[in-house]
Amino acid sequence: MDNDYKQDISDITYGESLIGTDDDLAGIRFGAMSETPQAPIALLSSHSGSTPSSYDSLSLVMLSTVPDMHSEQDKSLLNHYMKVVAGVLSKCESRGSNPYLTKILPMALSNQLIMGALLAMSASHWKKLQPAVWESGTKHKTNTLQSLAKLLPHLQMDSANIALAATLMLCMIELLDGTSSHWKYHLDGARQLLFSIDRQSEWRECGDLIAFYRGLYYYLDSATTISTCHPPLLETPKDTDLSSSEQSPQHGIDDEEALYGVPKELFRFIDKVNGLAYQRKYRDDPVFENMFRASADTLEKELEYWRQNYFDIINASQLEIQATSDEEAQHATIAYEQAIQLRLHQVLNGYSLQHNKVQECVSKILKAVQEIRYGSPFENCLVFPLTMAGSSCQSESDRLIIGDRFLVMERTVGFGYIYTAYDLVQRVWKQRDLCKGTVKDVNWAEIRYYQIPGLVLI
To answer: Residue 57 — pLDDT band, cuts 50, 70, 90?
Structure first.
């Protein structure tokens, strides 16, 4: 049985929690960089091929006015964000509807706090291939933390969305690193900020920006429950609960596609599965055990109904798939849905591999994963399915498929959490090999909790 995630910050404010959050960086002395990352700086001032899109034009026009954008290394980091990182973060093909370019980038180009978080995120992505850059990244992250701590006690309408954006970006930096547990402070801080914004009706006039950051919060909140075995900090609202004036319908659809990649409803199932996981500690009570199993059975039927309805809609459309991305979206959805099925089975029945359901889910996950091309934006949706399949596969051939995809994603996705997730899977395999011939089950969630506490399967 997994260990429960402990909420230990509910009695302090986010601003207070920022003090000491980056104590591990306190001893770093920030000097001149010994080398400049190998990025084509010329890309910031010239584009080949088609006419620059709106976000390119915006960034080129405003580049000269960006506060403190004098360092060649900072220009490299900004360029790396624009050309690589934003595309990696988005789970859709279209750059024109990528909110990491259309929403975060313009804010960063006009605000030093957001720019610092953006440059720190870019440096985090380069951490493995350009280690020298990370020193600059820690400087930007520390400066962002300090500036945010000063801003929070004096929030106004025009600064609330800036504080929320910076907080969520700091949360993402920690999550994408894969080794830090500091993300929980930032996620709870974002929750507190959303409460503050909701209490001030005029603060919600920021339209698409607040709506996007609210959506980003709900995505991160749901995704982290896979590791915390807790329900989300905030209940995800129904679509009808959101004010129609907060975001235009098309922007909302585009942003959801970029954030989730798979249907958003699957993340609501994740919320329910992990809410159920949190209640396992009461299963010693026979009465509660019956209620627990009834709840799990109901949830399994709901998920099966959703799956059938999803594919009925696709089949009923009678439309040929127009692009590879459409087909890959379906395969990513299958992999994710089967991973949820497998996780629900583990929550209910434990980690034994001697159930037909286990190998059925593993087989379907790997079949779907292999239909998604290397470098696809939907690779970002595969960390959870690959980890679930890796925790439960039995054959060497399955291990090779999973290991190969993780190694590819270390290059195509690049962030540290990919390396850490693969490390978790390899630890599970090593432990299972040691336990071969015994009746002991290997609990991947326990290994993650005790040995890799910073990893979140986003």
So the answer is: very low
Treating both helix axes as pointing N-terminal to C-terminal, what angle do 396-412 and 383-392 enclose, rounded to 10 degrees?
160
CB-based burial of residue 164 (10 Å sphere; 0-12 exposed, 13-18 middle, 19+ buried)? Answer: buried
What CA–CA distance (Å, rounded) separates 332 from 262?
7
Residues 6+ away with beta carbon under 8 Å from 216? 168, 259
Q: Measure CA of the first residue to CA of the last residue in the chain; give whole Å.
A: 21
Compute the distance between CA of residue 407 and CA of residue 422 in angstroms, rounded to an integer: 8
Q: Which residue has the tokens 């037909």?
A: 356
Under 8 Å between Cβ of 403 and 164? no
For 356, other C-beta atoms within 10 Å of its C-beta total 7
pLDDT digits (tens, 9 = 90+) for 419-452: 999 999 999 999 999 998 888 999 999 999 999 9
Instruction: State the Cα–Cα distance between residues 399 and 425, nearest whole angstrom.
Output: 9
Cα separation, 58 vs 213, whole angstroms: 21
- Percent of the chain scoring above 70 in pLDDT: 79
**Tokens, residue 415:** 């962030």
Q: Which amino acid is at 29?
A: R
Q: Which helix (H) or strand (E) holds 288?
A: helix 286-317
pTM of the predicted model, to two decimals?
0.84
The amino acid at residue 217 is Y
| Burial group, residue 439, by CB count within 10 angstroms (0-12, 13-18, 19+) | exposed
Residue pair 77/135 in contact (Cβ under 8 Å)? The answer is no
Q: What are phi and psi of 66, to 5 degrees?
A: -65, 130
**pLDDT for 176-233, tens place per residue?**
999 999 999 999 999 999 998 888 877 666 567 888 999 999 999 999 998 888 888 8
Concatenated DSSP letters for 82-111? IIIIHHHH-SSS-STT-HHHHTHHHHHHH-
Q: CB of 228 within 8 A of CB of 3?
A: no
* For residues 138-156, average pLDDT: 93
Quote the CA–CA distance of 99 and 89 in Å, as a whole number: 10
C-alpha angle 389-262-96 in degrees, rounded to nearest 5: 130
CA atoms lying within 13 Å on the CB side of residue 281: 9
Confidence of residue 62 (pLDDT cuts 50, 70, 90): very low
Structure tokens at 189: 């801080």
